[in-house]
Specification:
- Strands 4-3-5-6-7-8 form a six-stranded mixed sheet. Strands 10-11-12-14 form a four-stranded antiparallel sheet, with no helix packed on it.
- The protein has 14 helices and 20 strands.
- Helix 8 packs across helix 9 and helix 13 crosses helix 14.
- Strand 15 and strand 16 form a beta hairpin.
- The protein has two domains: 247 residues, 3-Layer(aba) Sandwich (Rossmann fold), CATH 3.40.50.12780; 97 residues, GMP Synthetase, Chain A, domain 3 (2-Layer Sandwich), CATH 3.30.300.30.
Length: 444
């Protein structure tokens, strides 16, 4: 493992203490307020909290400003809170729209070619990528920002990019071998599919691939599932968690270094350009180390479609030692992987259930197909009366499906304090997802 001094692309920023980063944020908040003061929409938004954008010159004004919600953006369709003219926007990206009309976010040329490129290149360097490395970009393109972001980041770092996107697994597993890609940016479930597909084609990922790193994003992944992926790949291969949102400007909020990877944590690695609050979802006060809070972001440098106090609804645990990492990033706090969403939480007969808890159980149960599982609910919404978990049995597993279902059911009861029916299917039965997996489905 390389030493800390070689692991930073921007040491003049990444090696700063947290107080120095806060000083940078404070200066940029003032500038952000001056920009937003030119936008009638943003002036109106601040007025609802009894504030003016120029009040951002005092950081404490953030505490009094209301949160920005997706419904507020949808009310201002089609170009909400753009903060600039459409003539200055070079490209639009959009949210997935899985729960309603997609929301469009603009990017000026500087937003893409300077800001986003620099943010992603910093993360790739922290993962251990270097100029000349070959990368398979397996994230989606189109209106989604994921594929675009890693195209820009690889170019900024000087890597060689193969932007195939998701899908075409039969071709990708051969190109992975023949073109000796060392990096993959891919959803965790699709990486599992690629490993399985290669084995079916007689390609051994452990010896035939030169893959050394994978940036896995688009959804949270349990440590057990991550360990399962790493076990099927070359000995020094590592998966690196990344986290971001379209609203925050892309997959740029948090990323792991080799040291934080070992703790299943990530750095808030772009705190000089993205101000991140981790707040108790009930009191909206900052959480203490070791506590769970909701991620709230403010984009400091983005010219088009900035956000101020955007509620991501994503829940995360602030590290018990947020400033303690051997990589030398003393000021960039450590957080755990995303636990779930405050609005995706299921409350089943009074018991709180997160899909990530179900995944943890499936990933640690021998014989299950790790990337194939579903939670079925009997009614839409967050309070179903009944949930059913569906799993698949690996073809090579010697036990019966009933025995495997019983094993998973017992573990779920122990983990959740709730008896959950489990269905076991043959391998290949349940849906596969090339990008973000939809784990909770309504089934009457």
């Amino acid at each position: 493992m390389a030493g800390p001094e070689t692991n930073m692309l921007h040491p003049e920023i990444e090696a700063l203490d947290h107080d120095d980063l806060l000083a940078i944020q404070n200066t940029k908040l003032t500038t952000l307020g001056q920009r937003l003061a030119q936008s009638p929409e943003w002036v109106e938004h601040f007025r609802e909290s009894g504030l003016h954008p120029n009040d951002l010159s005092d950081r404490q004004a953030l505490d009094s400003l209301g949160f920005l919600e997706k419904s507020q953006l949808r009310d201002r369709y089609p170009f909400p809170m753009l903060g600039t003219t459409t003539e200055k926007v070079e490209r639009f990206c959009a949210t997935s729209g899985t729960t309603g009309l997609p929301v469009l976010f603009g990017y000026t040329r500087d937003d893409m070619q300077v800001l986003l490129a620099r943010q992603v290149a910093r993360q790739l360097h922290a993962h251990g990528c270097r100029p000349g490395d070959r990368g398979y970009n397996g994230f989606g393109f189109g209106l989604w920002v994921g594929g675009l972001a890693y195209d820009l980041g690889m170019a900024e770092l000087g890597m060689t990019n193969f932007p195939v996107g998701p899908g075409r697994s039969d071709l990708v597993v051969e190109w992975m071998r023949d073109m000796e890609w060392s990096l993959a940016t891919v959803s965790p479930v699709f990486l599992a599919t690629l490993i399985r597909t290669s084995q079916e084609k007689g390609i051994d990922p452990k010896t035939d691939w030169k893959l050394r790193r994978a940036v896995i994003g688009g959804q949270s992944v349990s440590r057990a599932f991550r360990d399962e992926l790493e076990a099927g790949l070359p000995q020094d291969f590592m998966t690196f968690n990344t986290y971001g949102t379209t609203e925050a400007g892309g997959p740029i909020v948090a990323a792991s270094c080799p040291w934080s990877h070992a703790r299943d944590e990530m750095h808030l690695i772009n705190e000089d350009t993205v101000l991140t609050e981790i707040l108790d979802p009930e009191t909206f006060k900052p959480v203490e180390p070791g506590e769970v809070g909701e991620i709230v972001v403010t984009t400091l440098d983005k010219q088009a479609s900035p956000v101020v106090r955007w509620r991501t609804r994503d829940l995360v645990r602030l590290s018990e030692h947020p400033y303690d990492c051997p990589c030398g990033r003393r000021g960039m706090r450590n957080i755990g992987r995303i636990i779930g969403r405050s609005d995706d939480m299921l409350k089943v007969r009074g018991v709180i259930v997160y899909p990530s808890q179900v995944e943890d159980v499936i990933a640690t149960t021998p014989g299950t197909v790790k990337e194939a599982w579903q939670i079925y609910v009997d009614t839409p919404g967050s309070a179903p009366k009944q949930i059913v978990v569906a799993i698949e049995k690996e073809r090579s597993h010697n036990g019966s499906g009933d025995e495997l279902a019983d094993a998973v059911g017992r573990s779920l009861t122990s983990r959740l304090g709730l008896k959950v029916p489990v269905e076991c299917h043959e391998e290949g039965t349940l849906p596969r997802y090339e990008a973000k997996a939809q784990r909770v489905l309504v089934r009457e």
